[in-house]
Amino acid sequence: MSDPVPAAFERFRLDGRVALVTGASSGLGEAAARALASAGARVAVVARRLDRLEALAAEIGGQAVACDLLDDDQLDALVPTVAARLGPPEIVVNTAGHIIGGDRAEDEAPANIDQTLRLNLVAPFRVAQAAHPHMVAIGRGSVINVSSISGLVGIPGIPQASYAASKAGLSGLTVELAVQWAPQRIRVNTVAPGFFRSEITESLFEGERGSQWLRRNTPLPDVATADDLVGAISWLASDAARYVTGQTIVVDGGWTAR
Q1: Which one of 163, 181, 195, 196 is the catalytic residue?
Q2: Is the pTM of this model over 0.90?
């Protein structure tokens, strides 16, 4: 028989709640899905790579839902599919995002700008919109947008104008939705990570020049992994953060504190 959960941790439990996590096939999204499931949530893991999703869903007892967030029809069907398969979602974690192109601002192609904004800003908004009536019916909800310190400060040497704009937009969207939806007890917050080791950033961490640059600019000496972010996400999803809304929580090892 396992020991009972200490009283101080009971408000972090998510037993019986349905969570939807986008970008869950790897990195921060996968770690967030695992963390929420370990706290008792039933998790719908969402991304394009169905094989990875199915393996993850089998491990955590969740539900895999393949979805290309840039496809309007698939995006429209996402929340109804989750509600039908798993139940109405009351936790949404918008993790999916990408830098498309990586060119300097003056050279960014209009198509790349459009795709970046649609994936990183418009899709999270639309997922939250679709989940909203379910949260209203339940009487509570938590939307957690995963942004970036790129939405708060410029990063020398990494051109990402449209990406930075999309991530700054998430913080603006967060405060507006937080105020509009507060009467329904729906909380909306953003988590802004710094540089975490993942598939996307592996080359930066592996190269000597990149790793030295990271060490010079990050006050905390540890290399951050996805597990260093999931504590904030788990907290914001739970009743432990019942009175927290409209905030951007920065998790960056002190990068923006310099």
Answers
A1: 163
A2: yes
